[in-house]
């Protein structure tokens, strides 16, 4: 931890207040932030607490629909809120840089990664283009990006999500800024990539003396890089203290809940009693490719009724591709898939309506998965009526006794797909009850819901089809710990009540501990381990499984330093053996 008495204040935010442009709703209410040179301050709290809003405000920037209504933002004694547009542009990127959570959305798809990393230092006159490219290649190498000499020649779509996130860290460091705003920089990364990015960020901060605001909902992650933690809720400060003070002796009840949830994840295990003998899904020796590039190689797994099978692995290992194969979105080039003992057509277009009903998908990011223009009645009601009469649901057959046919939504006659809306309305309310959302949400749109509420809507939409198998693609990775805990409890309850089977695609090993009965470990398109979850985590390990397990951060401030010490000792021993 830095000695604050020897460090000047590099960022001072006083009385910060942000309001919605319409309605004057308060987003951030009278928050102060003090950041010393070389210090890392962690901002933690639930979704909507104001963490990212404060981070953007440090650059005197507000999202669309929000404005800074009060307070000052000083960087090295200069109130940047009083600067003109040109003055603020000169500060951004040069003195303070931002690392966004979603790198894929932050990069310009029309320009190479090298062009985008070199843009800021050349525009600000810090380096020539040649110098900027040399510095970029050095950063690519430090970030363990593939082919670091030529990686910058790629366009964003030619890099994986994890690679783009590391490239974004390189872009932020391109001007060697005094302050970094790190907005969930490792949330979308697998644990092995996450630890490398954490190590890099920590080393860069130490080497160049950069200060940082580290925004996250993961206490174990922020504990590795932060000197202090500020806890936020509903736009207000809850408490602030050193990492050890907040993690070991939290003062406020809300902070104690955050710590308790993160600590419970390490000890809780999935309940085995709900698993039945019936095999729902069998994937046998499946291969798949994108063009000539093979991405899944000889993969086999089975899923029983009431069972959760997790598939874990690093970014690019083939996890999501396997989900696409099971759902019929990517036909395999080899092997076969059986569903309830019968061959499952490879392509979604070849599957019957009833087969499509029985296998549903819950996506990682509900903001992308939900149509912002549709109310929940439409979002959930459409699959209710589309699959009516299937799976034993005879109550939803239309007046003529036939299965509903697809029609345009007609508000005047109150029909969905040819069926009276009163029945859709009734069933949609039942589904809202099932996922524990208030019935008055029925006419709301996704923009009027929190992140956790949106994910519950995605679950309700999947349940509307009355499926037997649900593919869960990173269902909690974008959620804060308390909301994620609620979603996990919901999934476990629904599984016990409805006998659902889950295939869980994730990189979060804590979630795997808590919900998965069996776990498959995937590396470069193949399974290197597939066993009961307890056996996977207790060892003996395959070397890659051990790498995954040991890369999971522990909620202790000295954990990352211990990892670095072990690496150094191992490297020294290897050098001694070679000599």
Which CATH class of the domain at 279-373 and 445-546? Alpha Beta
How much strand content do the residues show?
A: 15-25%
- Note the quaternary state here: single chain
- Tell me, briefly, the overall form: globular
Rounded mean pLDDT score: 85
CATH H-level name of the domain at 279-373 and 445-546... which superfamily? Answer: P-loop containing nucleotide triphosphate hydrolases
Largest sheet: 6 strands, mixed
> Within the CATH hierarchy, at the fold level, what is the topology of the domain at 279-373 and 445-546?
Rossmann fold
User: What integer value in Å does the Rg equal?
Assistant: 25 Å
Q: Considering DSSP H and I runs of 4 or more, what fraction of the residues is helical? A: 25-40%
Structural account:
It is built from 21 helices and 22 strands. By secondary structure, the protein is an alpha/beta fold. Among the domains are: 161 residues, P-loop containing nucleotide triphosphate hydrolases (Rossmann fold, 3-Layer(aba) Sandwich); 197 residues, P-loop containing nucleotide triphosphate hydrolases (Rossmann fold). The strands form 5 sheets. Strands 6-7-8-3-9-10 form a 6-stranded mixed sheet, sandwiched between helices. Helix 14 packs across helix 15. About 4% of the residues have low confidence.
């Amino acid at each position: 931890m830095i000695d604050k008495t020897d460090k000047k204040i590099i960022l001072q935010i006083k009385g910060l207040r942000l309001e919605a442009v319409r309605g004057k709703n308060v987003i951030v209410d009278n928050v102060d932030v003090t950041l010393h040179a070389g210090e890392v301050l962690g901002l933690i709290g639930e979704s909507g607490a104001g963490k990212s809003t404060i981070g953007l405000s440090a650059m005197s920037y507000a999202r669309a629909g929000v404005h800074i209504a009060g307070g000052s933002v000083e960087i090295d004694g200069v109130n940047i809120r009083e600067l003109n547009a040109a003055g603020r542009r000169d500060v951004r990127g040069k003195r303070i840089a931002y690392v966004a959570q979603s790198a894929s959305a932050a990069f310009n798809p029309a320009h190479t990664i090298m062009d985008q990393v070199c843009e800021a230092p050349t525009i600000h006159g810090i380096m020539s283009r040649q110098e900027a490219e040399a510095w970029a290649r050095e950063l690519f190498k430090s970030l363990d990006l593939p082919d670091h000499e030529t990686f910058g020649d790629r366009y964003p779509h030619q890099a994986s999500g994890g690679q783009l996130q590391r490239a974004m860290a390189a872009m932020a460091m391109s001007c060697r800024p005094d302050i970094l705003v790190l907005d969930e920089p490792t949330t979308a990364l697998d644990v092995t990539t996450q630890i490398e990015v954490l190590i890099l960020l920590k080393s860069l901060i130490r080497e160049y003396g950069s200060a940082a605001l580290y925004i996250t909902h993961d206490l174990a992650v922020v504990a590795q890089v932060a000197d202090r933690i500020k806890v936020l809720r509903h736009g207000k400060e809850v408490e602030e203290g050193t990492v050890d003070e907040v993690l070991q002796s939290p003062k406020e009840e809300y902070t104690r809940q955050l710590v308790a949830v993160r600590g419970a994840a390490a000890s809780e295990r999935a309940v085995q009693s709900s698993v039945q003998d019936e095999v729902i899904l069998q994937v046998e020796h499946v291969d798949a490719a994108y063009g000539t590039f093979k991405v899944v190689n000889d993969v086999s797994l089975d899923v029983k009724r009431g069972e959760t099978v997790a598939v874990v692995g690093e970014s690019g290992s083939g996890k999501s591709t396997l989900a696409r194969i099971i759902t019929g979105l990517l036909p395999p080039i080899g092997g076969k898939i059986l569903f309830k003992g019968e061959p499952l057509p490879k392509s979604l277009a070849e599957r019957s309506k009833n087969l499509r009903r029985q296998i549903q998908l819950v996506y990682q990011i509900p903001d992308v998965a939900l149509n912002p223009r549709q109310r929940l009645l439409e979002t959930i009601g459409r699959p209710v009526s589309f699959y009516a009469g299937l799976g034993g649901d005879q109550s939803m057959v239309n007046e003529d006794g036939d299965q509903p046919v697809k029609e345009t939504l007609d508000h005047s006659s109150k029909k969905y797909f040819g069926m009276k809306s009163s029945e859709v309305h009734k069933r949609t309310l039942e589904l809202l009850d099932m996922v524990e959302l208030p019935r008055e949400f029925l006419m709301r749109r996704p923009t009027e819901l929190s992140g956790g509420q949106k994910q519950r809507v995605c679950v309700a939409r999947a349940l509307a089809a009355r499926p037997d198998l649900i593919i869960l693609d990173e269902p909690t990775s974008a959620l804060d710990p308390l909301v994620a805990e609620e979603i996990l409890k919901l999934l476990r309850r629904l599984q016990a009540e409805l006998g659902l089977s889950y295939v869980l695609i994730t990189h979060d090993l804590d979630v795997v501990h808590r919900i998965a009965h069996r776990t498959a470990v995937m590396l470069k398109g193949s399974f290197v381990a597939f066993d009961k979850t307890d056996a996977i985590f207790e060892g003996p390990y395959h070397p890659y499984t051990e790498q995954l397990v040991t890369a999971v951060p522990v909620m202790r401030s000295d954990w990352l330093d211990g990892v670095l010490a072990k690496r150094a000792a191992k490297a020294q021993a290897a050098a001694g053996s070679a000599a």
